[in-house]
Amino acid sequence: MKRITFLLITVLTVTVIDAQNITDGLRYSTDALNGTARFNALSGAFGALGGDLSAIEINPAGSAIFIINTSSVSFSVNHKKNKASYFNTKTNASDTDLNFNQAGAVFVYKNPNQDSSWKKFTFAINYIATQNYDNELFIKGTGNTSIGEFFLVQAQGIPLDLLQLQNGESISGLYAFLGETEGTSAQNAFLGFQGYIFDPLDPDDITNTQYISNIASGNFNQEYIYLTSGYSGKYTFNFATQVSDKFFFGVNLNIHSIDYLQSTFLYETNSNPGSIINKVGFENNLAVYGTGFSTQVGAIAKLTDALRLGITYDSPTWYVISEETTQYLETQRTVKGELINEFIDPHIINIFQDYDLKTPQKISGSIAYVFGKQGLLSFDYTYKDYSQIKFSPSNDPAFALQNNLINSSLKGSSGYKLGGEYRINDLSLRGGYLYEESPYKDEVTVGNLNGFSLGLGYNLGVYNFDFSYSRTQQDRNQQLYSIGLTDTASIETTISNYVLTFGFSI
Prior knowledge:
Blueprint: E1 14-15, H1 22-27, H2 37-41, H3 55-58, E2 70-86, E3 89-110, E4 118-132, E5 135-143, H4 148-155, H5 160-163, H6 171-181, H7 184-194, E6 198-200, E7 211-213, E8 220-243, E9 247-269, E10 277-302, E11 307-314, E12 318-335, E13 338-344, E14 349-351, E15 355-358, E16 362-371, E17 375-385, E18 390-392, H8 397-409, E19 412-424, E20 427-436, E21 446-459, E22 463-479, E23 488-505
Parallel strand pairs: 1-14
Antiparallel strand pairs: 2-3, 2-23, 3-4, 4-8, 5-8, 6-7, 8-9, 9-10, 10-11, 10-12, 11-16, 12-13, 12-14, 12-15, 15-18, 16-17, 17-19, 19-20, 20-21, 21-22, 22-23
Helix pairs in contact: 4-7, 6-7
């Protein structure tokens, strides 16, 4: 009975409906610590340093620090571990993946006129995987709210005539019609009715709009699987210049991409007296594809040979996003002592209308102290106001509702990064620490992020090899569904990231 797939389904028809929420907006507005091994080893505290291809992603002026043409490519092993607690039942799940992390090159053009204040110009191209979505979460426990409430709540107010199959009408046909005319709530209600999860209060009245559950109250044994995969990436085209010996300026033009898959499956059983339905399996799949554009401008100032300051402005990212969903429901009921299984699979892919998303802008300030050739210390501060996430068009009632929820639930968040490096001849030892405040006002839905990093590098002149290990931890409350079954599980997520970078300079 337990079944989970990843969008392996036959397409019979297409529906066009709306469905975006605060989770979608936040998912595409946050970036993970990622980049070259040296960048990761210092926890990304590179805003005033430059001289690293991933540092360009923090401050565009960083490419003007390079003296010669340089390229690098990075690979990572990412391990995610989720500890879940749901009604005092604790479970663990983990996922490990090998990823292509970063690739890029910077080209340095020195001004042959040594008397000019414009010392050099640089052009860089870089790719970075801003998020790795591969993840697995398993939640298990015995609660007192049934998944049946999810279907029952959405059915109230819908005429019985819309949920019943007419002569010659198929499950797929009516499901598609409801998606085109009534939306996802009606589709969910239709699944629940066809699965006998609820019955009409007056079965003889086709205009009936009130329903009663066939699942009796009591205890419910629930297992919830949450699988995600995919990535978000950023392609950067960088232009920078050095003015005199003290000032560096740069600009980035960024193209963003999103490829995200999500699949959830809930399996519920009960032995409550009077319950007609004793088993329910409910699957939902989501596929998201998006493209976006953003810009960055930044500057670095060498106040002395040792002390450097950096400042960066990141514009919002403007996305155009497409979504597709599929659903499946199975139930087991008892009729006159006989067990009957119902399988309601519409074989429909819901194709949602493309929507626009604007992520928040970000301001960053940095300071670094370089101890000659022996080492350095660096500190970065960033601020991003997540309440400025916006869906559009904002005059659409559904988008207006989500924008209001975002404004009332999310807040500005500060981030702090500290990194250091110590050189012993050609060997470099590195470490870092990062802390990011929760984007939620309650700081409970998603907690603060803490992390540290370590690394080392070896310079062979033309070639260099770098390795880093970083670890971050964040707590959150995972709500199973937004309607009906709104119980939450406490999740502790730990991410360990191992990065290897190969660099080449000419």
